[in-house]
Please model this.
Amino acid sequence: MVVPRLMQSVLAGKVRSAIGSGAVSLSGPAYLMQLALGVALLGMCVWVIVLRLAHLPNRGRAPLVLTLLPWAYMLLRDLFVPVRPQLAVWFYPFLFVAIWALQPRLKVLAMVGRLTGWVAGLCIALAILLPSSGLMFSGNGDVITVDKQILPWGILVGMFGQGNSLGQFLVLGLPAVFLIPRQFTRYVFVMLTVFALTWSASRGAFVAGGIALVAVGITAWTPRPGRRVVVGLCSIVMLAVVVMLPFLTTDLEAFTNRGLIWIYSIRWWQDAPWTGLGSNWYSVVGGTSARLAGSAFHAHNQAIQLLVTGGVVLAALALLQFSVLTTSVARLAETGRLVGVGYLMTLGGTFVLERTLTYTDNTGMLPTVLVPIALLLFAHEHQVAYRGEDNSRYGGNLGHQVEGLAPVLLHVPSNQRLQQSDRGRDISLAAGAQRWLVPERAPNGPTQSPPDSHTGVEQQRTTNTDATTR
Model:
């Protein structure tokens, strides 16, 4: 969570620890804050579930079950390691069930965008005011400078332990920043997030953001009926890269020594290919003579992480979950909401070089991983889409923020709502394109043609002729 990390960075010195040397414990205030926030989160989820027991939705039950299966399997698998369950283990199921019970509007995702902007600003301020806490330092107090450094002031880590972790958090929250309704706040948070990303020098985050931008552009230029196919193809290509890259890598120093981690991780996975070695495997092997490196806290690839910790079974369950998420995002894209495409491709981009999604402890990335996934799966807009209604009135989409990319990205209300909410506003070409692309639907009747279409003109002329004759 963000607040305990910030408290730890301010109140206690940041220590770089190698895996196997023992976990760095939180300071007293930071630990109490983390415990209090964890209990509060679980309590709020339980409260929401209890209040909604009599009104649980019918839609989304199958996606909910498929989403909970990987967590349930990993929980049972760890009983044989054994791994003692922590409080964070229960965040995953209760959060997903609570959001499914609420079925909130997709615009709630803007809260994640605000949090991302504030984290970026706080990390920059921390690096300026407390460089020993906000920048990457070595054990002897020297600023760590590496070849990948972009700005001359070192590598920004902020309240995180690594620049890659900060970059991963920020790039996953960046699509939600574009949903912030106030234009000034949105622009400021976008600039802060991009600047902090650049300072963190996280090349994996840059790649993920670039992939998302290209995918959003392709989807935006695709007619709405074909967007489901485009989103599906993008997801398949992304997953193929995530899975195949580690198996095709033979150089131990490839991708900043990730080749070494991948090659040895595949060998470990072959010892238990179906069930894996448990969620704590990298901590266990890090305390032995077989450890790879002091920084090998995980597999640095989502597919390898799933195979090593849970085997083929966990990887198959995670694939089902990702397929359900892709289907939900594609359905939203057909209705003009591209924020899901941006987030899905960003998530897949981080899978290539990092471990983003875990099922037993995802505390660090909870706001930018679990919450967006749950909202994209169970947003209220899916109910409207199922009923065949025009759901454009339920909040904005990513197209608002990139209007120059393609006219189809523009979100224009219907004629009646336009007269009520946008009197006197000139929308010219965008309004005309929207009326042609999305015909109006009468409240209790068939689809009506646009008033400025040829059909409407002929009907009007016929009516006038009849009146004159009479």
Observations:
- The first helix runs from residue 2 to 11.
- Residues 386-470 have pLDDT under 50 and may be disordered.
- The radius of gyration is 25 Å.
